[in-house]
Structures are given as structure tokens and as C-alpha cells.
Amino acid sequence: MRVRPTQDAMHNASALTPQETASTPAVDHALALHRAGQFDRAELAYRAILDAQPHDANTSYMLGVLYLQRSDVERAIECFDTSLALRPDDADCLNDRGIAALSRGDNEGAADFFRRAVECAPQDALAHCNLGKALRRLLKPEEALNHFQRALALDHDLFEAALGSADMHEVLSSPHDAVAAYEYAARYAPDDLRVLLGLGLTLNAVRRHAEAEACFERALQKEPENVHALFGIAFATDGQLKFEDALVRYQRALEALPDSPTLHNNVAFTLTCMSRYDEADHHLRRAIELTPDLSNAYKLLGMSELRRGNFRKGWEYYEYRKTTPSGLRDYPKCEMPEWRGEPIEGKRFLLTREQGAGDQLQFIRYASVLHDMGATVDVWTSEELAPLFARVRGVNDVLTALPHGAGYDYYCPMMSVPAWLNDDAIPNAVPYLSVDDTQVAAWRARLEQAAGSRKKIGLVWAGNPGHYLDVYRSAQLAALEPLASVGGLAWFALQKGAPETQLDGVAHRWPICALGQLLDSFYTTAAVIQSLDLVITVDTSVAHLAGALGKPVWVMLPKQADWRWMMSGERNPWYPTTRLFRQQVLGDWSPVVEALRGALEAL
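Above: the chain sequence. Below: its structure as C-alpha cells.
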């Protein structure tokens, strides 16, 4: 919060109306001294007028403005209160009285004065802006945003209102609106450090990392050691997957803030993306030392322990995912108690969905475990997975809307179940998913008609484009073209979405039958997979689906593989029929493709 600049206050002084204070040589002289910045002489002149006219509201007000400009807040308040006692509906005086209250930390009082100013002068943009500032301090972002926007509607050029609007959009988790508001503010003050930092931060939030990097570079030109800019530019570089550069920038930020748990957490994340797991763990443990309840650091450390096969400790730490900012937003709060390992013999149990489709396909296996422990297990999941989950052994009912809790003894998110089983063993009997034999037979006949005597191979080369590492997890179909040289194989693309168009680029060299448009559900995809001899896929939900169906599936993994694929090896404890083909250099699929070709030739 800042006191209005001198010219704003003096604008009020020069706008005194004749009916309130007659223009006299003494008044004109005092105002001239005030405008000239000769505060000591102006103070004496104002005092002389008040000695002669103690009930002159305007002179009391202007003397208060002078004191406020000199940061003599208490004397300013005394003058403003005197003026308001004589003229209680003076919007300018109410406004400056609110500024004085802000200066002494009286946020509630300031808001009250600004409200009165707005009531007296509803078209006063500055009063609305100041009320927004007070409400921001009072942690009332919705109300604050309303008044900042009202101020902008009245005065499109009011920079502080534009900045306040951007700030409130950010607080209210509306990053796209915040970007637009900061860009608006940048029209009036493109080099203002607050604008550069705020715009960079919100551009990072909407994954416009290159633009964010440019903002922070400009901020660092103005203030080379600004820790917010150092942090922000490292994050922006990380977001562009330029991990080596990001690490250098994070190290520079750490030099400025060596005890920042958030910085240590982010460095750990970057090191994990570089497969430097031991160094990552060091920074995570340091982050936890600095802030013992840092949920995100525990979550990342849990994933690290799971990747290493240290399941007991990994599940314990991974429970913290539910108290990260995203976890608090995404995990439902059910009315029944959350299960913590209590006996469930004869209990009604609700197993709840979480994260993506692949996570649910992997962890629905625990419904059978809970059933074997004596519980009646219902599952809450998405409509697209419901038909598959309804056929899982031990599932009593599948719900696609979260129930209110009536009749349930416990609920538990799917990925929390192993944390409370006190057992390192992974229940990996497959298949635990199935589809109707009639549908499988129909698809098998259809595919065999196209394949003849050749082995039927399903292929997925691209995953979720929204994943932060999609550029590394997904491949280009052209990079897999050496597989076409292996004879005796019929290829079927299970790929959906925009990457399907890549089929056109290889069609004349590699005949692949496109099935994506026909795969209208996970259930249909499962029936197709059951009809194939082998699935080759990058790390997508299809890998989990094929593994859960007990079908042979070869998974192409980037060097920085997800925790569930472990740190090394071709086999995986979650899916016995899975074979893993790992990158050795991040982004380089060539050795993986050569290994796949050799394995296909050996079929």
C-alpha cells in the first residue's frame, strides 16, 4: 500500500471550491507554498489561517494532506478528523483519512473511511481503488477485485487499479485473467518492477514460460539480485525443459536464499527430471529440515522412495500429496471417515478415484484386496472407466457421482490403500480387468481379417499433450519407422487425438491400420487389446490398461521415467507381462527403437 503521490493530493488542494473556502491572499499564499514543496513555510501559513478561522474545514484538510506527505501520520489524522467533524461528507478528506489509517496499519478503519468516500462520491475512481487496497489487506479478494474493476471502469488509465486487479486475479487462482490484467497494466508502466514480476509469475502459471523468462530477464536488468526474479526465471527455464540452464539459475537463486525450502524443492524436481535422484533426495531432505510440514517435498520424496522400491517409506511420504495445494483442491472431502488401516470385516467401503485414468487403472486392483479383507467395496470413478471397473473381482457397485456418505463406514482414495496395508508386497496377479468375450471375439475376427496370419501389434506413440514432460514422454511416429522393416507383423494404431495425423506421413512406407476413431471408450480399447498379440506404447493409460488385462505390453520410457516404472530393469513389479525399453539419453529414442526392432525380430 502506498500513500498517493504528491500531485494527487495537491490536485485536491487546487480544486477547493469558492463556496467552501473563499480565495484570499492568505489561502492563495499557503497553497502556493504547499505546491512548491516548501512544507515548513506552508505549515506556518496554514496555522496562521486556522488561528484566525479555527472552523475552516478546507484549511484543516490541506494541513492534514501536508502532514501526510511528510509521513507525520498522527498529526495528519488529527487535522482530517477536525475537518470531517465540520464537513463529514467530504469525499477527498475521507479518502485521505483512509490512507492515513492504512499507513498506521488500521486496515478495518481504512476500509470504513474508503467506503464512506465511495458513498459520497460513487464516481471517484481513486476512492474505489483505495478501498480495493484496504480490502486486499483484509484478505477479502473478491470484494477487492470488484472495487479495482470499478475503478478501472471509471478511469481506464488508473495504473494502481490495473495492478490491483491483476493481483486479486492471482490470489483468486484465475491466472489467465491475471495475465490479461498485468498485460493491461504493462501498457502504462511496461518497466515497472511489480508488473514485470507479476506478469512473469502468472505467465509461468499458464505455462507461457518463454514469455515469463523474458519478463524476469527485464526485471533482473533493473534489479540484478531480486530474488523473486531469480526464482521466477529459473522456474520459467525449467518449464521449457531446459534443465541444465534451469539448474544453473536455481543455484544462483539458492545463493541469495540458501534456506528457502521452496527453492530446494524446485531444485530437487529439476534434478529428478535429469535422473539425478540422489542429489534430488538431498535437496528434498533439506527442504523438509527447513519446513517440516512441506507437503510437496514429502510427496516428491515419496515418489523417489517408491521408484527405488522402498515401498513402506514411499507410501508413508506419498500420503502428503493430499495436502499439497493441488491435493487440497482436487481430493474430495467425504462425509464418512477416511480409512487408516482399521479392520474392515463386514464394513461398507467406498474406494474413490484420483488423478488420471492410468493411475486408476493401476490401483483398482486394491478393490479385490479390500474385498478379501471382508469389506463390501463400492468404487467411485469416471463414466469412461465405470464399465471396466464393474467387472473387477470384489467390486460391489460402481458410482460415477460421489455419494454423500450415507451407509458407508469408510472411504479411501485408491492410491492411499497400500499405505495402510502394512505390506510391501504388490498384488500383481493379472488379469484383474476383463471385457465381455463376445466383444473380444468380434474384434478378434475383424483384426484377423486384416492381419491374416501375421502377428497383430498395437501401437501408441504419443501420450497426454498436457503432461509437463510430454515432449519427452511422447515420440514422433516417423522415429519408430525402423520397426516397419520387421516382417510378419500387422500394425494397428491405438493412437487417439491429434498425433493420429502422423499416420499420413508414413502411410506409403509403413501400412498401419488406424483404429483411433473407433475406440470410443476404455472398454472398447480393452476389447481391441485383448484381440492383439502385443501392444507397444509410450507411457500412457494404454500401458496400464494392457498390463491390467495381462496382455504382453512393451513400454517405451524416457530417461526420466515415472516412479511406477522403477529406476532400472526391463521388468516391473506392477505388471508381470510388461517389458520396459528405457532411454539412455533424454529425448533420444533411436536406441530404444533399435532394441524394439531386435525384440520384434526375435518373436
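Confidence is low (pLDDT under 50) at residues 1-20.
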